[in-house]
Specification:
The protein has 42 residues and is of the alpha+beta class. 29% of the residues lie in helices and 21% in strands.
Length: 42
Amino acid sequence: MLAHSLSPCITTTKVEESRDFYVKHFGAKVTFDCGWYVSIGF
């Protein structure tokens, strides 16, 4: 079997800070954000 994508899940109480970190340092794009849950893609 060959994986075509990965979907890691990170649990944190610092949602905004985590989102901003991945956007700033890794160029991630926010695909969904409802405040308590954020989905990002690359």
